[in-house]
Amino acid sequence: MAEQSTPGKSGSEPAIVISRRMVRRAAIIGAVVVVVIGIGVGAFFAGRSSSPGKQSRGTASAPPAHHTTKTFLPAATTTTTAPPATAPTTTPIPPTTTTTIPPQTLLVAVENGTQTWSGQEPTVMRFSNDSTAVVTSISWSSWTSTEAVGNGTWAYDDCIPDCNTATSTPYPATITLSQPMNGVFTSMTETTSGPEGFSSTYTYPSNWVLGAS
């Protein structure tokens, strides 16, 4: 069909349209060619850089790596020295002193050759069958192996109106034992006070205390 011209436009417009289309096509083709060439060049240089033994020109080679040898020192050993053992302090024990205490001396009462009492620190001593020759309530201030001393009471009878019915009066008396022999006192002194106070000495066993308790 024949082209109809558009009123108001010249006949040169179709030629301008064709010319524009050709320019566009040529631009597109040129862009595609540039891209393809760029890809090829990139692949070429990439292949050369990855080849063994070859380096790309203009690129500085990296210096060879230096291997560092690490030496591991053994761990330090800490030695703890224990202090020398201290010997326990021993406190010397003083020797035990044994004191031998001699046995206490006894008082032995004898009447008519027969022993009537034996012991220590009696509270009553009878010297005759007379009621006035008795010392009672004796308290001993000392009693050792060599001597014994006691204090008591004796009864004084004034025999008024007679000795059997008279009233007795107590007075202090002291007994002293001495001269031990074979564990027995053999000497005794009786000292009394009062109106008729006296001091008598007795010898074991003939002239001695008759009884005790």
Keyword list:
two-stranded antiparallel ribbon, 9 strands, 213 residues, 1 helix, 18% helix, seven-stranded antiparallel β-sheet, alpha+beta
Folded structure, characterized:
The protein has 213 residues and is α+β, with helices and mostly antiparallel strands. The protein is built from one helix and nine strands. The protein has one helix at residues 13-50; strands spanning 107-111, 114-119, 125-126, 134-143, 148-157, 168-181, 184-192, 199-203, 211-212. It has a seven-stranded antiparallel sheet, with no helix packed on it. The chain is rod-shaped, with a radius of gyration of 76 Å. 9% of the residues are buried. The model is unreliable at 1-10 and 52-60 (pLDDT under 50).
